[in-house]
Fold this protein.
Amino acid sequence: MLKIVKQLELGIDLGTSNTLVYLKNRGVIFDEPSYIVFDKRNLNIIAIGKEAKKMVGRAPQYLNVVKPINFGIVTDFESTTNYLTKILEIINKEYFSLLRPKAIIGIPLNLTEVQIRGVIDAGISAGFKDVYTIEQPIAAALGGNLDIDEAKGLMIVDIGGGTTEISVISLGGIVTGKSIKIAGDRFNSSFLNYIRLKHNLIVGESQIEEAKIKIGSIVGKNNLFNLRGRDTLTTLPKEITISSHDLREAISPLLIDLIDEIKDILNITPAELIGDIVSRGIYLTGGGSLIEGLSEFMENELNVKVNKLENPLHSVVLGLGKIIENFEHYKKFCYSNSKVNI
Ligand SMILES: Nc1ncnc2c1ncn2[C@@H]1O[C@H](COP(=O)(O)OP(=O)(O)OP(=O)(O)O)[C@@H](O)[C@H]1O
Ligand SMILES: [Mg+2]
């Protein structure tokens, strides 16, 4: 009898901020911001990724700069399909021709079936033959070389751009967990509001993001950064110097809320698993976790050790890569498009 091997070729972390793609036998071959720019007049794609992100807030009226994924959800189906099609085109040009490849896409926790269907259908419309999905925390744990098969509790907190996934995994499945909207983008918007209210300055998002990355620290350091924008009182251009202290003040209410959400999940986690979590510590990943001192802050607030995964921006895609390279072993953790029926 002919054995049909369902070979997965691509793993995609379709993040709110960044998209990463793992190609079987090759590794991570695409790592770019999740943006696409269209020409409004003819709907031609002008740029994706880094080139597209550079145009945020700077594009002329005839261009439409789109962030197709928000909170890990496909919020713009057409743009997501075009975005994935373009990525496939790049792979076909730079690597080798993949004729209707099979792909696995990491999805946030608690998506509705309609939202899962949105991710799958965008992939199918872009030209994938089959689309498998897996919960991002499982992929992140695999990517961090954590053993997910064990009958032991493993808590992983993935602070991304749009969402933070808080979850407890045991025996390869999510026992308790949720996806919340406190993550890098919310840090940026709080910081932006704070600068407007405290310093009467309106600045562009890209400067706020740069400042967060360069001077973001919640351990008492006070690095400085110059912001240029428009004074809200005089409406004239103005430059100010802000410090790490400003960022701390702006995002600390969000960090307190984040800690409360983690406590809520710990509260509903079975006691046996809590024992495992206390002895191993919590695992922290995602780009949002890169703010200096965040793990120490969490340790103090939660009274549990917090371990940082080595490669926080890559843990999900590396986990997808592991699944692709050893699908027979990991397929039990994945969902195929045929299992999502609505
Ligand atoms: N050094 C840094 N310090 C602080 N924040 C950072 C740093 N580097 C990246 N970030 C933030 O990390 C976020 C992106 O992280 P990541 O790539 O894990 O998100 P994502 O997977 O695209 O989003 P999501 O998982 O929510 O869909 C952005 O908000 C970015 O500003
Ligand atoms: Mg992510």
